């Protein structure tokens, strides 16, 4: 399995998500800061970022934009309790892979696991499909 970064300023929420995905067999990297996310992206360790709301003083939509400028192929899943339609539209425009509500029960956890599984499949396909091809 691949490396999944969980970025959440809430230590309890971050630990809960880390437990879910490490139990599912993923290698999990945790951070509570935007700097930690960007450092890992530059190191190219994680293939998928599970971004849970805002980090530090950076709104998630702005952080997603920065991540995509650093690595346009990074697969990002936004996990939040935010259901604001303008925010959802903005982060989708930035190129998130999926938006999910924070899991509150086993059914929500299963939905998030499936989203992460699809994200890794998508990330693998992007790498395989992009190998040897140049944009004109």
Short description:
By secondary structure, the chain is an alpha/beta fold.
Question: How would you describe what is shown here?
Answer:
There is one protein chain. A 5-stranded parallel beta sheet has the order 2-1-3-4-5, sandwiched between helices. The chain has 5 helices and 5 strands; from the N terminus they run E-H-E-H-E-H-E-H-E-H. It is 51% helix and 18% strand. The longest helix has 25 residues, at 106-130. Residues 127-136 have low confidence and may be disordered. It is an alpha/beta fold and 136 residues long.
| Alpha-beta classification | alpha/beta
Query: What is the helix/strand order?
Result: EHEHEHEHEH
With helices defined by DSSP (H or I, 4 residues minimum), what is the helix count?
5
Q: Which percent bin holds the helix content?
A: 40-55%
Number of strands: 5
| Main β-sheet, spatial strand arrangement | 2-1-3-4-5
Shape: globular
Chain-averaged pLDDT: 84
List the helices and strands and how they pair.
Layout: E1 3-8, H1 11-23, E2 27-31, H2 34-43, E3 48-52, H3 60-70, E4 75-79, H4 85-94, E5 98-100, H5 106-130
Question: What labels describe this entry?
Answer:
136 residues; alpha/beta; five-stranded parallel beta sheet; 5 strands
């Amino acid at each position: 399995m691949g490396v999944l970064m969980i970025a959440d300023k809430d230590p309890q929420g971050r630990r809960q998500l880390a437990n879910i995905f490490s139990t599912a067999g993923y290698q999990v990297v945790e951070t509570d800061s935007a700097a930690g996310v960007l450092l890992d992206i530059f190191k190219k360790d994680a293939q998928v970022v599970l971004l849970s709301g805002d980090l530090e003083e950076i709104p998630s939509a702005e952080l997603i934009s920065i991540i995509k400028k650093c690595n346009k192929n990074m697969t990002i899943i936004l996990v939040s309790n935010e259901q604001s339609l303008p925010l959802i539209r903005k982060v989708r425009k930035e190129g998130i892979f999926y938006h999910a509500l924070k899991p509150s029960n086993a059914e929500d956890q299963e939905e998030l696991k499936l989203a992460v599984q699809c994200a890794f499949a998508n990330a693998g396909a992007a790498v395989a499909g992009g190998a040897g091809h140049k944009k004109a």
